[in-house]
Recover the amino acids of this structure.
């Protein structure tokens, strides 16, 4: 056994002086601090806090933290059983289970506040998303209405200024009657090329070549008489139709003003929504 001023070389296991820096047996060189700190300093061991059995769930826990780590039961409000509160077997009696101490109540309160905040945030998010979707839908609808109104206004302006368009059938009837009447009045002054054109037109209607169309003058004379009767009827109905056209023209002008005011309102509403 080495004495107090000796130690054992870790390489050759021979006894040497404690202050030696080099082993005389094997030549091992020790670090400079090895002589002073040959052995590590002893570390003071700290015993853990004694465990305490929870009176609520009977599980071991630390009493120093003030509540049970298993059931959140507070030790400040319910003290442990005394020496006299033991049953016949010597074990401590457990009282009736409580609803938890202040730690449990605080945890439930924090959880409730958190859930309420999350619920309110979700409702607000849904409401804002729904409002934004409704705004975008309204903007698209206004843009469609504005485009349709702008497309209607030019035609309404023309009809309001010059009156409604004449019925296509009435216009065709009047044009043909005027043509037949003009041709019937000028049968004696028709040139040969005009006569051949008339024969060609009648031949198409009758399914004959122009050279086989006979009595074309009589045909056009009868047509001219019918055309003059048609023109007389049209002239007699002109006053009645003029009153109807004036009434229709007034209605068209009213629709034009309504479309203009609607266009202004839609444009103002669109600007307001786009600025939000």
């Amino acid at each position: 056994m080495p004495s107090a001023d000796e130690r054992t070389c870790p390489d050759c296991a021979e006894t040497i002086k404690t202050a030696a820096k080099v082993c005389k047996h094997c030549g091992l060189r020790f670090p400079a601090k090895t002589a002073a700190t040959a052995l590590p300093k002893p570390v003071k061991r700290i015993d853990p806090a004694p465990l305490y059995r929870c009176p609520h769930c009977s599980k071991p826990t630390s009493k120093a933290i003030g509540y049970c780590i298993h059931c959140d039961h507070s030790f400040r409000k319910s003290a442990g059983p005394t020496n006299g509160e033991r049953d016949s077997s010597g074990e401590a009696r457990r009282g009736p289970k409580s609803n938890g101490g202040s730690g449990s109540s605080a945890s439930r309160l924090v959880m409730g506040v958190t859930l309420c905040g999350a619920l309110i945030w979700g409702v607000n998010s849904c409401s804002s998303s729904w409002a934004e979707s409704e705004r975008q839908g309204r903007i698209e609808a206004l843009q469609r209405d504005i485009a349709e109104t702008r497309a209607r206004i030019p035609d309404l302006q023309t009809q309001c200024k010059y009156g409604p368009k004449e019925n296509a059938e009435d216009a065709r009837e009047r044009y043909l009657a005027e043509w037949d009447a003009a041709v019937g009045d000028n049968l004696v002054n028709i040139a040969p090329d005009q006569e051949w054109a008339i024969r060609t037109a009648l031949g198409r209607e009758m399914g004959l070549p122009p050279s086989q169309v006979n009595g074309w003058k009589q045909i056009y004379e009868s047509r001219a008489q019918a055309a003059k009767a048609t023109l007389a009827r049209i002239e007699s109905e002109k006053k009645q139709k003029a009153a109807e056209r004036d009434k229709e023209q007034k209605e068209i002008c009213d629709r034009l003003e309504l479309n203009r005011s609607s266009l202004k309102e839609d444009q103002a509403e669109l600007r307001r929504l786009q600025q939000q």
In short: Helices lie at 102-162, 168-185, 192-206, 216-275. The chain has a mean pLDDT of 76.
